[in-house]
Amino acid sequence: xxxxxxxxxxxxxxxxxxxxxxxxxxxxxxxxxxxxxxxxxxxxxxxxxxxxxxxxxxxxxxxxxxxxxxxxxxxxxxxxxxxxxxxxxxxxxxxxxxxxxxxxxxxxxxxxxxxxxxxxxxxxxxxxxxxxxxxxxxxxxxxxxxxxxxxxxxxxxxxxxxxxxxxxxxxxxxxxxxxxxxxxxxxxxxxxxxxxxxxxxxxxxxxxxxxxxxxxxxxxxxxxxxxxxxxxxxxxxxxxxxxxxxxxxxxxxxxxxxxxxxxxxxxxxxxxxxxxxxxxxxxxxxxxxxxxxxxxxxxxxxxxxxxxxxxxxxxxxxx
Length: 319
Prior knowledge:
By secondary structure, the protein is of the alpha/beta class. About 60% of the residues lie in helices and about 10% in strands. The protein has helices spanning about 1-20, 25, 40-50, 65-70, 95-110, 125-150, 160-180, 185-210, 215-230, 240-245, 250-265, 270-285, and strands at about 35-40, 55-60, 80, 85-90, 115-120, 300-305, 310-315. The chain has a five-stranded mixed sheet, with helices on both faces. The chain is elongated.
């Protein structure tokens, strides 16, 4: 009876936590202080400024500053108003969730001014919009599955080599899949994908070395919750999710970094983030003792010591 109650409660708690950390992100999404830029003559600019609200933050600037803000991804869209015409400019390097909100809001502003609206943005296919987040998730899953199989098959040596080989092969398979969808990358984007894959694989291998199969409890949870957060922009997230999840999830950095490289070729912070993750993975691989249990069934292999005839746990040697 007690076992039945404990397992039932555990199932309910896990379901609640997963719902809170995954679907809850999307269910509570609402725009707040979304930054947008407007270029307009003074009389119209004054009316536009009055349209500011808690959902959006409208900046009335000149055309040069507006386009620089858009290029630097400090705003999600620009509305340029000239007599008789309104033009919305979008940047494909910005998260699609942000540009969608920007287009909707700025269209409403232009229509409120009684002006026809034209949208200027480079054409982006559905596959290109999907690719950054999809690539991040696939690189994580590939490394996680390889690490899990290494544990189940009781791999003992050269765990770091397995991680690096996994990173190269998973990157190749991911790039091949995206190429089939019609998405191609230049050398900088390919190098970034490989760096992400290496950092993911090393971190996962390090956790599997110390926790054994129990590492799936951490890695699986990260996979389930991180993509839901990484697919949003911070201004659409509930403040709690923004602070607790979005602020640190590596999926956010890999997704936004790859998107930037696809369209404007510039990333900086992301390289440091994944260099740090790779370093943590190496430290986990090289330091401390490994998990005593490597078997998928949780059973420790026991042998008889030839010297004294006493049973001992099988010694595993790993790199």
